[in-house]
Amino acid sequence: MDEPKRGIFQTIRDFLFRLLNKEFLIFLFFLALSGVFWLAMTLNETMEKEISIPLVVTNVPKDVMITSNINDTLRVTVRDKGYTIGSYVYGNSIQPVKVNFANYARSGGHGVVTTADLLKLVRSQLGKSTSVVSIKPEKLDIYYNYGNKETRPVVLNGRITAGGNYFISEQKVSPEQVTVYASDEVLKNIKSVMTAPVNDLRNLTQDPEKRVVKLEPVAGAKFDPGEVTLEVKVDVYQNDSIDVPVTVVNAPEGRSIVVVPSVVKVHYVRPSKAKAKFRASDFRVEADYGEMGTPSSKCRLTVKAVNPAVKSPKLEVEEVNCIIKQ
């Protein structure tokens, strides 16, 4: 009795399962069919879309250097049926737009590809039903010369600061000079080449990574290389001291002066990463004979750093005994 019941339940379960699967497949079929209809209607509608078309300048003589930064891509907004625009975006129907250099070479090293010329070149790549709404850039300036070049120094465009007790120990761009290709008229107005603005290196407390910085473009000029490497190093000051002998100045010839003590301690701050220790010869402590009032009196001392790497030198004592030796 139990066996026939299990057979009936199994038959009912299989029937319901097949029924549900059949309804689900029918649902998927109509869903896909509606999607196809929706896509067909959408693609049949007129729409606008920005597409990118490669641009190349052809037939450039070997002895000609193009000095302007010409965009290698045109951004063109077109209007047409969706399926046509889809062929532009996802197909291979559009070939690069080729600008023949010989057609725009002019005296003075400057040729202009006008908007009308660009539209003509672009339309030759598109279908007859497609209309061009806009094109960017609207024109091309082609600056060129026949190998005129000079070197110019690179100047960092920005202000770099250290934070806290740190200081900028080294700041350099590499290379320090670049080659500038331009006409004589443009070259004479370029005294130096600026980097792109660098304004995010402030309050540094550790050495940042090297970074590559592009050069600011100049109309009619091309730089080689077109970018430089910027490296900034920071260091922190630390306190130190050293014994320095006192030197008497402005003493008359033949007059001997004895100072007591003859050596004084000088406190200063120095870079913590300094490779070599500072020596007494990096400082100068002076006692001025002209300030003496009597053969035995106090002399005020002055100190200065001979080595520019030394910062904030200070005397531990400001006066010493000066005795004129008879």
Describe the structure.
- There is one protein chain.
- By secondary structure, the protein is of the alpha+beta class.
- It has helices at 2-43, 82-90, 115-123, 184-187; strands at residues 46-58, 65-66, 73-81, 97-100, 110-113, 131-136, 140-145, 149-155, 166-174, 177-181, 193-194, 211-214, 222-224, 227-249, 256-260, 263-271, 283-288, 296-305, 311-315, 319-325.
- Strands 9, 12, 14, 15, 16, 17, 18, 19 and 20 form a 9-stranded mixed β-sheet that branches. Strands 4-1-3-6 form a 4-stranded mixed β-sheet. A 4-stranded mixed β-sheet has the order 11-8-10-13, with no helix packed on it.
- The longest helix is centred in the N-terminal third of the chain and has 42 residues, at 2-43.
- It is elongated.
- The model has no long low-confidence stretch (mean pLDDT 83).
Oligomer: single chain
Radius of gyration: 40 Å
Low-pLDDT segments? none
Strand content: 35-45%
Shape: elongated
Instruction: Give the class from helix and strand content and strand pairing.
Output: alpha+beta
